[in-house]
Design a protein that fits this description.
Elements: H1 2-12, H2 28-49, E1 71-75, E2 81-83, E3 86-87, H3 93-98, E4 111-115, H4 121-133, E5 139-141
Parallel strand pairs: 1-4, 4-5
Antiparallel strand pairs: 1-2, 2-3
């Protein structure tokens, strides 16, 4: 009976314990959370690039390399012009284009034009004419995916 008491007293006492502290860290939950966050960012990143919902036309053209800080203009199906995510009032486009500063090398930034496919050709050309008048000669027209027709 005395031995049973001695064993019980050792179990409850940490002073006499000779066990080494556990030094392993379980990183599996951390890796799982990081992978889920990576997937979320990969899915949402393309959606953040363009905030104006536009039904883009399709094209078989090759994609261009993205440029640092391009100027993004969008024309929605109703013909309203957006500078980035800001809707412009009628006649405000030339003023906004005049306020754009050249890059460090002296050249104006590249303009990315997104236009709804339901728009009339004249509306898109009027915006391109304003861009040309403001000195923007490098204009990229954005399309979605590729068209399988020849």
């Amino acid at each position: 009976m005395a031995m049973g008491l001695a064993n019980n007293s050792r179990r409850g006492s940490r002073r006499g314990s000779r066990r080494a502290p556990m030094a392993d860290i379980n990183v599996t939950p951390f890796v799982d959370v990081m992978l889920v966050l990576l997937i979320i960012f990969m899915v949402t990143a393309p959606l953040l690039a363009a905030g104006v919902p536009i039904d883009l036309p399709e094209s078989r053209a090759n994609a261009l390399a993205p440029e640092e800080d391009p100027v993004t203009l969008s024309i929605d199906g109703d013909g309203f012009i957006y500078f980035g995510d800001d809707r412009l009032a009628a006649g405000e486009l030339p003023e906004r284009l005049a306020n754009i500063r050249p890059r460090s090398d002296g050249a104006l930034p590249q303009v990315t034009l997104r236009a709804d496919q339901a728009l009339q050709y004249g509306r898109v050309m009027a915006v391109m004419g304003e861009l040309n008048r403001a000195g923007f000669n490098s204009i990229s027209l954005v399309t979605s995916g590729s068209d399988s027709s020849p």
